[in-house]
Amino acid sequence: MLKGSPGKPLHPPLTDASIGAYTLGVAALIAGKAGLQPPQMAHAALIAISLGLLLAAPTAITGIVDWLDIPRGTPAWTAATIHLVVMVTATVLFLLTWLAQRPGYNAEEVRTLALVLGIAAETVLIAGGNIGGANVFVYGVRVLKRPETPVSEALNPLGVRDEDAAQR
What we know:
- By secondary structure, the protein is mainly α.
- Helix content is 72%, strand content 2%.
- The chain has six helices and two strands; from the N terminus they run E-E-H-H-H-H-H-H.
- It has a two-stranded antiparallel ribbon.
- Helix 1 packs antiparallel against helix 2.
- The longest helix has 33 residues.
């Protein structure tokens, strides 16, 4: 259940949502510090980063479940382990960003420390996302590669028929 179904893993859509929330939060920090609607951007930044932090737990859990299935000692496992460490680092940096910006929410201003931490967190997040993407696009982790699958089955939100189970 935590893995998703064949052809529909749960980890990637959760990463998209959390990366989007974090990125919006950092964009709001930058915009607010640049003088664009500072009170609104101070609020938007904290709300968006809060959403990213709320999504961190389910994103990490589904990622760890996928990581546990990768054969140990392989290049894909090494890349996944590096991805895990980098993403935990990014999450800690976003938590620190949240803590630094929290007083700015009430004061309706973007805090300089929050901006610096947010940019650092976003930089680490980008690196971690790139490393995670290598597992999919280079090593094919959780990719079915079934080019003959009918479109109606491939687009099924519940997943693609598990051919291995059908042969048992």
